[in-house]
Amino acid sequence: MEMITKMVLERPVVIYSKSLCCMSHTVKTLLCDFGANPAVYELDEVSRGKEIEQALLRLGCSPAVPAVFIGGELVGGANEVMSLHLNGSLIPMLKRAGALWV
After folding, report:
1. DSSP code at position 68
2. Is the peptide bond before 92 cis (omega within 30 degrees of 0)?
3. How confident is the model at residue 2 (pLDDT cuts 50, 70, 90)?
4. DSSP-based three-state secondary structure for 42
5. Is the pLDDT of residue 12 over 80?
6. Which runs of consecutive H residues, i.e. helices, occur in the chain?
7. For the chain, which end, N or C, has fewer CB atoms within 10 Å of the first or last residue's CB respectively?
8. Residue 70 C-beta-side C-alpha neighbours within 13 Å
């Protein structure tokens, strides 16, 4: 868990993903289209990916991917990100975290 804490504090937006996960792709596309430039960790491609995935499950991410952190805080998975987008909260959250300049 300490590893995750360190990783999510390095950038305003961090996404833990798997390269072939369609929901991960959707979340990455949405945030990139906004210009958020997230740090993306593909757990099926990085060393210690299984360890990170287990830590995400312990944090309450179910399923483990996609797991989105904004401003160092766990936002959740695809459902939570899409809900924030639909209710108009996502862009202000990204701005507060310093991920968007506009």
Report:
1. E
2. no
3. confident
4. strand
5. yes
6. 2-8, 22-34, 49-58, 78-86, 90-96
7. C
8. 23
Q: Residue 74: helix, strand or coil by DSSP?
A: strand
Q: Are 54 and 45 in contact (CB under 8 A)?
A: no
30-63 b/e (C-beta count within 10 Å ≥ 16 → b): bbeebebebebbbbeeeeebeebbebbeeeebee
- Are the beta carbons of 65 and 4 closer than 8 angstroms? no
70 Rama class: left (phi>0) / alpha (psi -120 to 50) / beta: beta
pLDDT digits (tens, 9 = 90+) for 58-96: 999 999 999 999 999 999 999 999 999 999 999 999 999
Matching residue, tokens 């990170």: 52
Question: 88 near 76, Cβ under 8 Å?
Answer: no
Q: Which residue has the tokens 């804490």?
A: 5
The token pair that represents 42 in the structure block? 């593909």
Counted residue by residue, the chain has a size of 102
